[in-house]
Design brief:
globular, 16 helices, about 425 residues, four-stranded parallel sheet, Rossmann fold, six-stranded parallel sheet
């Protein structure tokens, strides 16, 4: 498996996914080797929960890039050294796998797996050199992440990966539809949902005094409602629209407070919005990356989790909140895997679908939850039940392995 982030180096949800799914594979009796990025401070080889982890050292190769490619990447990432790291990681990883592990150590691999454009170059090289199937996991797309914009080079690389791979695994039916619209071959695409660990994300495991202290640290009193946003502070997450929804929410639920936790390029903009709307007493921010223990405590402390994303291929945050027995309000327009995971009507309802671009619609969903404690409790209980049935990491791993086995059974070596 080639994946650009893996513990202890975590940047976003992809690293958590790689950690959880690979350790599940090991528990199920499979041998897993991971190649991941090393910016110089980590060991080049170790074992993590039974996973054989390789982190080749990098060199800067930016001067070898055509200028047009550099300018294209600058528009999206500003720092072109990032692209140098990614390409060097792909080349170093594939060379190490093919030459060191297979040719020198005589190791055998049945399948190679790449995650997003960040590691698909290495996957395509290994597929050709080792004559083994390539599975390309697409967790999001360049066009989607940039709401239609982004780097043409990266978009073309994603498409080439889809054409080359033996199967394309994606995270929701809306993402499947997006890939089809981008020209990915329909017959190759399979949907496998992500998961959550309900033993970690368990509402009964959190100390009530710790919950009280956390709420108090944000100035949330016992008789007030805490709305939580957790995630990257970037345009596609819709958190600015949530801030704009707060005056509307407060007209109906005057004892509501919003807590925003995360880091990203919107921090200054969000602070300005809070000041413009005079919400300093009602919106609290924690512009920090917090560890899993703290995330679990925040879910336990809130009354409602709102994720009004404009583009969300899957959405791990609502799953974590649901596992903690909390109701959720989610953005469900456009490409939103949360339409699959969050039931918004019927006996199994666990939240509300809203237009993440519309503050009034976000407020409508939040008010529907916060105005009825019994209804909110029912939504939270339904969400936890849904997680246990459909969205554990064990279920995710078994569904993914079925796709891998399907490919292996049909693979014909050259």
């Amino acid at each position: 498996m080639l994946v650009w982030e893996f513990p202890p180096r975590l940047v976003g949800g992809l690293g958590t996914y790689a950690q959880e799914i690979s350790t599940q594979f090991v528990h199920m009796g499979h041998d897993v080797t991971i190649f991941t990025l090393n910016e110089g401070s980590l060991p080049t080889r170790d074992v993590w929960s039974g996973v054989d982890v390789h982190r080749p050292l990098l060199v800067n190769i930016i001067e070898a890039f055509p200028q047009l490619m550099v300018e294209d990447i600058k528009k999206r990432y500003h720092n072109v050294d990032f692209l140098s790291h990614i390409l060097c990681y792909n080349i170093s990883s594939s060379l190490s796998l093919v030459n060191d592990l297979v040719k020198r150590e005589q190791r055998h691999f049945d399948i190679v797996v790449s995650h997003d454009w960040l590691s698909v170059i290495g996957g395509m090289i290994c597929r050709r050199e080792l004559d083994i199937p390539l599975i390309f996991h697409v967790h999001s797309t360049e066009r989607g992440r940039n709401l239609g914009g982004g780097s043409q080079y990266i978009a073309e690389l994603e498409h080439q990966g889809g054409l080359t791979a033996d199967r394309v695994v994606t995270v929701s039916n809306p993402m499947r539809d997006e890939l089809l619209s981008l020209g990915f071959p329909e017959g190759k695409i399979r949907v496998c949902y992500n998961g959550v660990d309900p033993k970690k994300y368990d509402p009964t495991s959190v100390n009530s005094e710790d919950v009280r202290k956390l709420r108090g640290s944000y100035g949330v009193d016992d008789d007030e409602k805490m709305i939580l946003f957790m995630g990257r502070l970037t345009t596609v997450k819709g958190v600015d629209r949530l801030v704009m929804a707060m005056p509307i929410i407060l007209r109906k639920i005057p004892k509501a407070k919003l807590v925003i936790v995360g880091v990203g390029e919107m921090q200054r903009h969000l602070s300005g919005l809070i000041s413009t709307y005079k919400l300093q007493n009602m919106v609290k921010t924690k512009f920090e990356w917090i560890d899993e223990k703290q995330r679990i405590l925040h879910y336990a402390a809130c009354d409602l989790c709102v994720i009004p994303s404009l583009y969300e291929p899957f959405g791990i945050v609502p799953l974590e909140a649901m596992s903690m027995g909390k109701p959720v309000v989610v953005g469900a327009r456009g490409v939103s895997g949360m339409r699959d995971t969050v039931m918004h009507m019927g006996p199994n309802q666990c939240g509300y679908h809203v237009n993440g671009d519309d503050p009034e619609d976000i407020a409508w969903g939040a008010v529907n939850v916060l105005s009825d404690d019994a209804h909110a409790k029912m939504l939270g209980e339904s969400g936890r039940k849904r997680i246990l049935e459909y969205y554990t990491w064990e279920v995710a791993a078994r569904n993914t392995l079925r796709v891998y086995e399907e490919v292996l059974n049909s693979h014909k070596p050259r």
